[in-house]
Each structure stands twice: as structure tokens, then as C-alpha cells.
Amino acid sequence: MGYCKVTVGFAIPPGYSIPQWLGEWVHNATDGNIQPSDPHILEGVEPGEGHVVMEGGPGKAGFPPSFFAPAEKRVQDGMRGFLTAIWTKNDQAAAVNAVNFVRKLFLSTPCCQKGGMPDSYRSEVILNLITLSGNLAGANVDTRAVVAQYAASHGITGLGSQEKFATYDEAAYKMSDKGPDSYHTCETFTCSIWQFLHFVTTGSAYFAAAGSPRLSPGTVMTFTRTFVHEFLTCEKCRHHFLLSYDECQFDRCEVDQQSDWPGLVLWMWRVHEGVNLRTAARDNAPVDRRWPSYEDCPGCWKPLGFGAKNEANTFQMVDIGKHPEMISAPFNLTKTYNFLVAQYVGYDSTDITAISGKVIGKWEVEQLLIPQEQTHRSKPLMSAFSVVAVAGIVASFSLWYRVKASQRMSCQSAEDLETLVAVE
């Protein structure tokens, strides 16, 4: 088709939005060979004033690449957040109820008809919760002292400290802890609470798929509301969560309370996605805040035509929970669910995790790395993927991220590398 002639110094015509004008300009510059696939989408509002134009992949969401945040680290951060929360609240009854819920979910017997206990849940800080539960029982218990002692016995100290956050060094391709007693994947206490809520909901789905259902989706939902109400210290975060819950936002009331574990997982994902979008609108974020990012999981995104990635909302972003279709629309929800399970349960467990009655194989984890429009070309290779060991999958992730990182490094200076953006 040849090259596009780029003219600089021109002004956007009156009445045009930037996306609308850009689409028309590209169409004209290519002699009509390229045009927006959904021109009506380009008619929306601009970012700011409570709105956000959501840019789809490819791109980064400002989070550490998922390969550097495996399930084991997410669970550890979630448990640090859980213990910090009950230590901060310092309420014996609330602490006992929370600990007993987590113990019942993760330590009920038997486990499991298929798959067994995931490695990410074999952490001593989870396996010994019966000890914490017993120590919290009884009269005249110093709740804060008991929780701090239990945490310290499992390598978690300084529960009230704000100095134990992890940092992500893209140039070195690794997550660097500020010490052995630190967050692995988070920068804030609120982040660790999100990690906790995600691994609770995905854990519930895992045990159900493994033939050992512990707690119903409705019971888990009720716990998340109680936990946020009792323990989340971010007042605005707590307000938004409870309001959305009580008003059935993010399609909460569409989830079957007895058997829809995948729906439970995706509900929590939409709630968190709403937080990311509100934060992006509030801060005029320079990057797409949705997760998983296209970079992490191309297969989680639906095919995007030119212009179709510019989904402009016409409502205040504070009301995003009333528009869950805006959150779900760009995503392949089956693959997004698989990705969430892989991130919070582990890639070694995805072979028995079911959604809509379909059991997925380990080879499908690889498919998450392939944009949806390319997956049809890979079908002859599916049977070969099924015999790949999880170590091979992890190695593939490592190679893929190293290649991606090296490509970025080749066109970015150290000053241009994107830093983590704290979430609300």
C-alpha cells in the first residue's frame, strides 16, 4: 500500500473529537484503504471529568507482568493482607469469624477428587490456620498480640508497617523484594486485600471443579461483603464496594448463589476492574488500567478492529458498576476466567478447572498468549500441547516475557520505562 504521508502542524477541525478526527485522517491518508470498523464508537466523550476513553491492547496496564506474579506470591501477599487486616481491626469476634471462614474454605476435608491441593495453597501460613483459630478462642484474648505472633512465626512481621512493599524492575526482568519480609506483588495494603479476595473466590471455584465444593458462591459473596465492611481501611474503597454489592452492580445478582463458581470469580474481577477504571478516570491515567492487559493475555481480548478499541463512556465513571457490559465487552470471558484461575490457583491446576461444564487442558494456558483472531491457525497443534508439562509452560512464559521486554528496551530509554501505578 506504500507509506502514509504525515503532515504536522494542522489543527483538529471544530466539533471533532480526537479519535473521530484521527480515524478520518487515517482513512484519507490511505486513500480509503483503512477505515474505522465501528465509526459510531468514535463519537464519545474525551477523558477527564469523571469519564475515560478505554484503550484496548496491545499495551500495558501499569501492573507487573503476570509471569512475575505467580499464584504462590499472590497468595502470600493476600495472606499478609488478611493478617494485617485482622491485626488492624483488633476485634476478637471479627477475627475469629474471618479465620474460621478461610480455614473452612481451604482446609476442609476431603481434598480433592481431582487435582489435589494446589501448591499455592500449601503455604504454612494457610495450613496452620487451625492454630490461629484456637489461639484466638477463649476469654481475655489479646487479639492483636495473637495475630502478630502467628504472623511472625510464619515470617511475616511489621504488620502495620508501610515500608515493606515490592518493586518491579523491568530492565532486570524480575520482581525485587525489599527484603524477605515484604509484599511480592503489591505496593499497598489495599492491593493485598484485593489479592486476598481474588484467591478466596478462585479458590472456591477450584475446589468445586476438583470435586470438593466447600462453600457456595452465595456464602463466599456474603463473606467478601462482611470482610470489606469490617476490615478495609480505605474509606472510599469500602464505600464503593458496599454500595455496588447492595445495589447488585457488576451483575452480582446474576450469579447463581448455589452453583455458579465461575460467575463468582468473574463478578469479583468486574468489581476490581471497576476500581481500575474509576482510578483511571480520576487520575487521567496515561495507560489502560484494565486487567489482564493485552500484554499479559492476548487471548483474553476479543479481536479489535481499528477504532473499536476506543470505547467512550457517556456516563460518570463512578457509575461503572451499573454498566457491567462495558467491562465485559472487550474480553473473552472464558479465557479471562481461565487466566484468573491460573493467576490465583496456579498453572499446574488449570487442567481440572471447568467453566460452563468444560474441562480445560494445560495446552489452553498457552492459548491465552495468542490473540483470539490467531487461535484458529493453531488447532492442528492442540493435541501436541496437551502433553506439554507445566515446566514447559512456565519456560514458555519466561521466554515470551524476555522477548517482549527486550523489544521494549530496544525502543525505550530507561527514563521511559513505565512505573507501577497505585490502585485505589
Observed structural traits:
about 425 residues; mainly alpha; Four Helix Bundle (Hemerythrin (Met), subunit A); 2 domains; two-stranded antiparallel sheet; about 45% helix; about 5% strand; disordered C terminus
What does this structure look like?
The protein has 424 residues and is mostly helical. The chain has two domains: 1-35, no CATH class; 66-333, ERV/ALR sulfhydryl oxidase domain (Four Helix Bundle (Hemerythrin (Met), subunit A), Up-down Bundle), CATH 1.20.120.310. The chain contains 15 helices and six strands. It has helices at residues 18-29, 71-89, 92-107, 124-127, 129-136, 143-153, 189-209, 217-231, 235-246, 261-283, 324-328, 333-344, 363-367, 382-385, 390-411, and strands spanning 53-55, 167-169, 174-176, 310-312, 354-355, 358-359. The strands form three sheets. Strands 1-4 form a two-stranded antiparallel ribbon. Helix 3 (92-107) packs antiparallel against helix 5. The longest helix has 23 residues, at 261-283.
- The CATH architecture of the largest domain would be Up-down Bundle
- List the uncertain runs: 1-10, 165-175, 305-310, 355-363, 375-424
Strands ordered across the widest β-sheet: 1-4
Overall radius of gyration? 23 Å
Q: SSE layout and pairings?
A:
Layout: H1 18-29, E1 53-55, H2 71-89, H3 92-107, H4 124-127, H5 129-136, H6 143-153, E2 167-169, E3 174-176, H7 189-209, H8 217-231, H9 235-246, H10 261-283, E4 310-312, H11 324-328, H12 333-344, E5 354-355, E6 358-359, H13 363-367, H14 382-385, H15 390-411
Antiparallel strand pairs: 1-4, 2-3, 5-6
Helix pairs in contact: 2-6, 2-7, 3-5, 5-6, 7-8, 7-10, 10-12
